[in-house]
């Protein structure tokens, strides 16, 4: 069971996306122990291939000046697009729920000095496994494997 309140908020975002008919990936941005941005994968809902959870979260946070004292939480290991955003904004730490269903780009982030923490949460794995089993074509589209 996850006891991290920020990851719990990211999971809440993932579940919100799922109820909207989207892909259940959620993200929050934390600064000074406060959530300043929330988001979830909105590719399906918006018809926008770029609206991954982390991108939605950063957009919703808006301009925050420096991101160097922020932590980005995501229920799933960020892909290269989202990892690139973390690198671009010099976010020093990314905490993820899991990387088993999608390996993402942790080494890319680490090679740019980002601390990557993979919690390996069963709750996140189960959420993604159930979604992938029910929606394989949509998932393959999301990860570019169609």
Describe the 3D structure.
The chain is α/β, with parallel strands linked by helices and 146 residues long. Helices cover 43% and strands 18% of the residues. The protein contains seven helices and five strands. A five-stranded mixed sheet has the order 2-1-3-4-5. Strand 3, helix 4 (80-88) and strand 4 form a beta-alpha-beta unit. The longest helix is centred in the N-terminal third of the chain and has 15 residues, at 5-19. The chain is globular and about 40 Å long.
- The helix content is 40-55%
Question: What distance separates the N and C termini?
Answer: 34 Å
How many beta-strand elements? 5
Order of helices and strands: HEEHHEHEHEHH
Radius of gyration: 14 Å
Uncertain parts: none
Largest sheet: 5 strands, mixed
**Average pLDDT, all residues:** 95
Number of helices: 7
As laid out across the biggest beta sheet, the strand order is 2-1-3-4-5
Name the shape in a single word: globular
Strand % is 15-25%
Return the structural class.
Answer: alpha/beta
């Amino acid at each position: 069971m996850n006891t991290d309140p920020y990851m719990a908020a990211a999971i809440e975002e993932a579940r919100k996306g799922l109820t909207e008919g989207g892909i259940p990936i959620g993200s929050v941005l934390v600064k000074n122990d406060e959530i300043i941005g929330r988001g979830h994968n909105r590719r399906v809902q918006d018809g926008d291939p770029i609206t991954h959870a982390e991108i939605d979260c950063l957009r919703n946070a808006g301009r925050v000046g420096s991101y160097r004292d922020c932590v980005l939480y995501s229920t799933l290991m960020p892909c290269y697009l989202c990892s690139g955003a973390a690198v671009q904004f010099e976010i020093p730490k990314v905490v993820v729920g899991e990387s088993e269903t999608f390996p993402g780009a942790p080494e890319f982030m680490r090679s740019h000095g980002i601390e990557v923490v993979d919690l390996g949460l069963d709750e996140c794995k189960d959420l993604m496994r159930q979604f992938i089993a029910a929606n394989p074509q949509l998932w393959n589209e999301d990860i570019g494997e169609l």
